[in-house]
Amino acid sequence: MASTEPAAGTAPAAPAAPEPISKVSIIVSKGSLEGIYPALIMANGARAEGIEANLFFTFFGLDAVHRKRIEHVKVATVGNPGMHIPTLLGGLPGMSALATHFMSKRMEEIDIPPIPEFIEMIGDTGAGLYACMASVEMFGLSRDDFVPQIADIITVGDFYAMAAGGQIIFT
Fold it and tell me: How many other CB atoms sit within 10 Å of the CB of residue 77?
């Protein structure tokens, strides 16, 4: 059996540099502010670094690209451990709107654009934005329900083919 140890008196070989990421495919499945923004920030950062980026909106993540819902995405206050408030308090009327207001104000202060503007910016960078066909059918939606940046409504198989050779990120 051959030894993998370097010969006496020789320096070990330097580890190979990792291959740079050249493509990311990001799945957006949550329709809350804290479910959508991480995907948008990651896609925008990828494009800024010259990395190919595709976003696949499925289930309630479709709200991020739905013409009537895009302006009404809120912070989830009930059952959200990141809120650090009791569930009972998070369920009070107006709590989600209040949390959304404060979060949106803070993001504006640090120059993070609102979702509609962010979607447009990311689309303009050449990122691919796609709606999940199964979710679109399940919710009874059509192409007309989505913002113009949605390139297509695709199947999961189409998404996997598109994602081949890259990193898949699930938010």
Answer: 21
CATH of residue 69's domain is 3.40.1260.10
CA 9 centroid distance within chain: 50
> What global pTM score does this model have?
0.84
Q: Rounded to whole angstroms, what are the CA distances from 165 to 1, 22, 154, 158? A: 35, 9, 18, 14
27 falls within a domain: yes
Q: What is the DSSP string of 58-107?
A: -GGGGGGGBTTTGGG-----TT-GGG-S-HHHHTSTTHHHHHHHHHHHHH
Q: Assess contact for 53 and 94: CB atoms under 8 A.
A: no
Q: What is the mean pLDDT of residues 31-40?
A: 94
Which residue segment(s) compose the domain that 128 sits in?
Answer: 23-77+113-170
pLDDT, tens digit, 9 for 90 and up, residues 40-51:
999 999 999 999
Q: Which two tokens stand for residue 121?
A: 């910016």
Distance CA 54, CA 159 (A): 9
